[in-house]
């Protein structure tokens, strides 16, 4: 793996704020003129993104954010039938979750992850079945495309990019399942490579603390009478 420098990590929370606001703008375009209400999934989402805009504008939102309507709707898929929602909602989820979106400065990290995994697999190549070799060769080709600044598109082999589909590699290559999952997320879902993930980011201005303060020692004792 290459060294993860401050330049690769990149800017602080302002980058996450900008990415979140871009996703929110796309969501507003996709949802159009709908009613803000808790009675419908799209209404709840509009209320949620209005709150997010407010907190970002005031510089009070930490990253990652706690469980919210965005996370629920990504899981439920209730709004995926609306054109433009699924992709924008997914981007907003990745930002709010603290995973972060992949940027051009992360490509060398992703290529390094691919190279390292391919090298570990090639060390036991004679033991690897043809089908699993095909997956690794496909992965190497994607790395080569990235070196040429060509983003490789998804293809039918993408569904085989997991540990369970590659039992020999999963057993013989250290941490294969997690490593291939991280590469797959960066290639096919635009996630920031895990090696370049930012630490939790505090907001520029004080807001709600990440954890509740300890309970006071009953300061109200004696305030009330039966």
Protein topology:
Layout: H1 6-9, H2 13-31, H3 41-57, H4 69-76, H5 85-96, H6 107-122, H7 130-147, H8 167-172, H9 176-189
Helix pairs in contact: 2-3, 2-5, 4-5, 6-7, 6-9
Molecular structure report:
- The chain has 226 residues and is mostly helical.
- It is built from 9 helices and no strands.
- It has helices at residues 6-9, 13-31, 41-57, 69-76, 85-96, 107-122, 130-147, 167-172, 176-189.
- Helix 2 packs antiparallel against helix 3 (41-57), helix 2 packs antiparallel against helix 5 (85-96) and helix 4 crosses helix 5.
- The longest helix has 19 residues, at 13-31.
- The protein is globular, with a radius of gyration of 22 Å.
- The model is unreliable at 218-226 (pLDDT under 50).
| Number of separate strands | 0
| Radius of gyration based on Cα positions | 22 Å
Rough outline: globular
N-to-C terminal Cα separation, in Å?
68 Å
Largest sheet: none
Report the sheet-strand fraction.
under 5%
Helix vs. strand class: mainly alpha
Q: Indicate the multimeric state.
A: single chain
The residue fraction in helices comes out at: 40-55%
Helix count, per DSSP? Answer: 9
């Amino acid at each position: 793996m290459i060294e993860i420098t401050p330049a690769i990590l990149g800017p602080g929370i302002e980058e996450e704020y900008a990415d979140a606001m871009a996703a929110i703008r796309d969501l507003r375009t996709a949802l159009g003129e709908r009613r803000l209400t808790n009675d419908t999934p799209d209404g709840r989402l509009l209320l949620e993104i209005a709150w997010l805009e407010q907190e970002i504008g005031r510089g009070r939102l930490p990253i990652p954010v706690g469980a919210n309507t965005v996370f629920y709707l990504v899981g439920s898929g209730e709004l995926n039938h609306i054109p433009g929602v699924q992709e924008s909602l997914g981007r907003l989820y990745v930002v709010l979750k603290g995973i972060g979106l992949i940027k051009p400065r992360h490509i060398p990290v992703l290529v390094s992850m691919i190279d390292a995994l391919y090298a570990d697999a090639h060390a036991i190549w004679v033991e690897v079945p043809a089908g699993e070799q095909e997956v690794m060769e496909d992965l190497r080709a994607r790395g080569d495309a990235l070196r040429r600044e060509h983003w490789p598109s998804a293809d039918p082999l993408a569904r085989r990019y997991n540990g369970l589909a590659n039992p020999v590699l999963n057993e013989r290559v250290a941490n294969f399942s997690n490593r291939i999952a991280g590469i797959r997320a960066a290639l096919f879902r635009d996630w920031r490579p895990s090696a370049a993930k930012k630490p939790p980011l505090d907001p520029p201005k004080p807001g709600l603390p990440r954890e509740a303060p300890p309970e006071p020692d009953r300061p109200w004792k004696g305030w009330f009478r039966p």
